[in-house]
Amino acid sequence: MELRQLEYFVAVAEELSFTRAAERLHVVQSAVSAAIRSLERELGPALFERSSQRVALTTAGAALLPEARNTLDAARAAREAAQLSTGRLQGTVRIGTLSSLTRPDLPVLLGRFHQLHPAVALTLVVSPRGSAGLVEGVLSGGLDLAFASLPEGPPAGLRVRDLYTTPMVLLVPAGHPLARSDAHAPLELTEFVDEPFVDNPAGYGNRELVDRAFARAGLRRQVVLEAADVRTLASYVRAGLGIGLLHDVTADVDTTGLAVLPLADPSLRWTLSMAVSATRRASAPLRALLDVLEDAAPPQP
User: Fold this and answer.
1) CA angle at residue 62 from 57 to 66, to 5 degrees?
2) Are 15 and 24 in contact, with CB atoms under 8 Å apart?
3) Which of 46, 60, 194, 275 has the fewest other C-beta atoms within 10 Å?
4) SS3 call for 65
5) How far apart are CA 37 and CA 41, in angstroms?
6) pLDDT in tens for each of the 301 residues of the chain?
7) 158, 131 in Cβ contact below 8 A?
């Protein structure tokens, strides 16, 4: 049994796709298939159930997965110990982030990390499924670290550090009747529930937080357009296609032609968190990156 075979097996098990595993490993798919077949011949039982529609772990594959991860972690730790003895950190850190993240300033922080550890490769991923996809990436092992919004709290298997919290606001066109209110007192959900909404797709922290607030209030709203990027979302609102509930809007978008209105619901506060696995041993490159990020993060309350 070779480490390479276990690496390929873990990649397929985490991605549940030979194609995605090959892309992640930067090899051709036939090499992944051949390595898995060779491992199955050596061990005896099949490790995956394969069909044209899906790939799933067998009972034997599920039993092998934690042991394979432990073996790879041990091999990585041995390799890192040898590398650190030379004073040069190497490896890869896979980071999941949100499409419109402005805080923390990742380009600056990752640039600082690169100056300290130029031999460490950094890979950034934006999930089309928002925070839900990023969390799955960390839990499956496809990502080492993710910046995500977790309105329902962290799932089992994640270690989370909250970075900052900001109130949600209502975004409407500048000529909207709500924008012409003199007082601009905090608005109740009932005051605009009948409006058409522009929102993020399901799975985004922004969307989950708002959906939960309306559900708690026993209200139903109509989402007429979805946009993954907050700047695009704001553009739709500016064009009069709907209203939107966003976080930290003045930092993320140009508010020209828009009115930014406060909300009365105290639960509508958006939190950005930094999440890593609580079950897998962090690699030396990941620990070094976390040190840089922790130094830049605000103190915990």
Assistant:
1) 135
2) yes
3) 194
4) helix
5) 6
6) 888 899 899 889 888 888 888 988 889 999 999 999 999 999 999 999 988 788 899 999 999 988 888 888 888 777 777 766 666 788 889 999 887 777 778 889 999 999 988 989 898 888 878 888 889 888 878 889 999 888 888 888 899 998 888 889 999 999 898 887 655 688 999 999 999 999 988 888 888 899 999 999 999 999 999 988 888 888 999 999 999 998 865 556 778 899 889 999 988 998 888 999 988 888 888 988 998 888 876 665 5
7) no
96-135: buried (b, 16+ CB within 10 Å) or exposed (e) per residue?
bbbbbeeebebeebbeebeeebeebebeeeebeebbbbbb
Rg over alpha carbons for the chain, rounded to the nearest Å, is: 23
- The angle at the Cα of 249, spanning 244 to 252, to the nearest 5 degrees, equals 120
Helix (H) or strand (E) holding 109: helix 106-116
Q: How far is CA 21 from CA 64, 142, 146, 171, 279, in A?
A: 17, 10, 20, 41, 21
Element spanning 5, H or E: helix 3-15
* Structural element, H or E, at residue 258: strand 258-261
